[in-house]
Amino acid sequence: MQPTPSPIPDNNVDPAFARFSQFIARELGIKMPPEKSPLLMSRLRERIQDLKLGGLEDYQRYLFELPDSSAEWDEFIDRVTTNKTDFFREPGHFDYLSGTVLPALAAPRGPTWQLKLWCAGCSSGEETYTLAMTLSEYAQSHPGFDYSIFATDISTRVLALAQTAIYPQAKIDPVPTELRRRYLLRGEGAQRDNVRIVPELRQKTRFSRLNFMNDHFGVSELFDVIFFRNVMIYFERETQQAVLTKMCRQLKPGGYLFVGHAESLMGLKLPLQPMARAVFRRTCTRFSGF
Ligand SMILES: C[S@@+](CC[C@H](N)C(=O)[O-])C[C@H]1O[C@@H](n2cnc3c(N)ncnc32)[C@H](O)[C@@H]1O
Fold first, then answer.
1. What is the pLDDT of residues 221-269, one digit of tens each?
2. The pTM is what?
3. Helix axes 56-64, 71-80, angle to 10 degrees
4. Do 55 and 114 sit in the same domain of this protein?
5. Is 207 in the same domain as 67?
């Protein structure tokens, strides 16, 4: 991830910040306008101090000389990304999934079928395991139904958390009592303030690192449903168009895409039709230029 020197557009902006801003937008898709300068600084300050470097410029020089494979790049990405998430965030989507999407997808499939879902930008896994709970509940009343969840993020720190599937008790407030009883294990001893997702759900999930800015996602599967929520809100419009175009290629015709409630697809050219709030369905016709 070596930087290419580029002109600094605004003379009032710290050149080191401007270079980081361009680099982050190009490599991670995340927009970093000048007003985000204090935010970036606050996220990197501790690291700069730990490395006993003088400031942002020194850190930049240090980082850009390292090979792509250096663990410092992972550290940097962990700090630059915003990983806020929750169990049952924007809960209407999970009701819509089990009440409308699954019956619609099930109708032409016959009694035995498997749903393939991609949780794209999964952060520390709360959304992924909410989906696993929702799908397992549906499976209870629909024998013959099975599912698998592919979950990805660019941050290795949150992926590691997701894979442990251990969460503080304080995070599980949004999980309905009945689902806690079925799908969460209470910790003991040193883990007494934590819960862990049951193995039956963990076995249904596969976590992997993926950068949406890659030309190709390197994913051979097509999905029935993609959850891509609260990620592209951090991207510029052209980046949103490019990433969503690639994402639609991973969606089966007739498959569903869920985005965050605050995210809009208005004005983007995509083979999708709106179905419900922040829910879209891949059209079955061929999409010109797609
Ligand atoms: C705010 S979290 C959203 C988590 C979850 N989808 C939700 O709605 O609760 C956004 C996630 O997108 C990931 N992300 C940001 N840029 C990315 C990129 N270029 N490729 C892959 N993941 C990215 C971040 O690491 C972060 O974990």
1. 999 999 999 999 999 999 999 999 999 999 999 999 999 999 999 999 9
2. 0.94
3. 130
4. no
5. no
Measured in angstroms, how far is the CA atom of residue 83 from the centroid of ligand 1? 6
- Looking at this protein, which amino acid is placed at residue 161? L
**Which among 89, 153, 202, 281 is annotated as catalytic?**
153
> Which of 80, 101, 127 lies at the terminal end of a domain, its last residue?
80
Would you tell me how many other CB atoms lie within 10 Å of the CB of residue 96? Answer: 18
Residue 201 resides in a domain:
yes
- Is-catalytic flag, 78? no
CA distance 202 to 188: 19
250 CB less than 6 Å from ligand 1?
Answer: no
> Residue 256 in contact with residue 232, Cβ under 8 Å?
no
153 has catalytic annotation: yes
Reported as a single tens digit per residue, the pLDDT across 115-133 is 999 999 999 999 999 999 9
Domain that holds residue 76: 15-80
Whether residues 172 and 272 share a domain: the answer is yes
Same domain membership, residue 162 and residue 61: no
Rounded to the nearest whole angstrom, what is the distance from the C-alpha of residue 74 to the centroid of ligand 1? 14
Of the residues 27, 52, 80, which one is the last residue of a structural domain? 80
